[in-house]
Amino acid sequence: DAGVIQSPRHEVTEMGQEVTLRCKPISGHDYLFWYRQTMMRGLELLIYFNNNVPIDDSGMPEDRFSAKMPNASFSTLKIQPSEPRDSAVYFCASSLATSGGLTRQYFGPGTRLTVL
Amino acid sequence: AQKVTQAQTEISVVEKEDVTLDCVYETRDTTYYLFWYKQPPSGELVFLIRRNSFDEQNEISGRYSWNFQKSTSSFNFTITASQVVDSAVYFCALSEAGRWGGSEKLVFGKGTKLTVNP
């Protein structure tokens, strides 16, 4: 079975450019999470969706960041305009709710973003 | 607010040594969930274990074992007879009960980098 798919795997852009990260969750999963990993701040939850609806976006750093989930098999995280401090690894994860909540989150391989 | 502390930033051991990674958590909820994830040098995050707050039984899986103690708010992870392939960053994470009482979003500790030398 295919796991969580993220694209691109690496992105290098210049400050001020728009960046779009993409994620395809595991088929059938009803939760999708976006995380950011940096040396300084570690792994931070940015936003998560349940059944394509954003549930908690309190981790989104500022208005330059936006995320959408137009359908159950696709999500995007957009940064516009990008800044050097946005350089990080961005992970997407998906999960399936059970009677006991989420048993685990399945992480994608991450997108390494470098903003020059 | 929930918080996870992994006080050990880096640990270095020699192969075959036992090593324990510490995790201390803070939460006001009585229902919560604890996790460990592994991040090898290749960068992906690999799930290791999930425990809920009602189950304090220790768990053993091969060379891995976990000690959950609510009295000290700790969920420590021990690798017995460590191997070079165990070299990775290990993250402890906490999830408070979500909208329907189950686990939802995770709060991660800063991670412990384990290096196992041959």
Overall helicity of chain B: under 10%
The proportion of residues forming helix of chain A, as a percent range, comes to under 10%
Radius of gyration over C-alpha positions of chain B, nearest whole angstrom = 14 Å
Mean pLDDT of chain B: 92
Name the quaternary structure: heterodimer
Characterize the main sheet of chain B: 6 strands, mixed
Percent of sequence in beta strands of chain B: over 45%
Terminal-residue CA separation of chain A: 36 Å
Biggest chain-to-chain interface with counts: A-B, 25 and 26 residues
Largest sheet of chain A: 7 strands, mixed
Q: Please tell me how large the radius of gyration of chain A is.
A: 14 Å
Q: List low-confidence stretches of chain B.
A: none
Beta-strand segment tally of chain A:
13
- The low-confidence parts of chain A are none
Overall morphology of chain A: globular
What class, by secondary structure content of chain B?
mainly beta
Q: Tell me what portion of residues of chain A adopts beta-strand conformation.
A: over 45%
Shape of chain B: globular
Total E-strand runs of chain B: 12
Q: Structural class per helix/strand content of chain A?
A: mainly beta
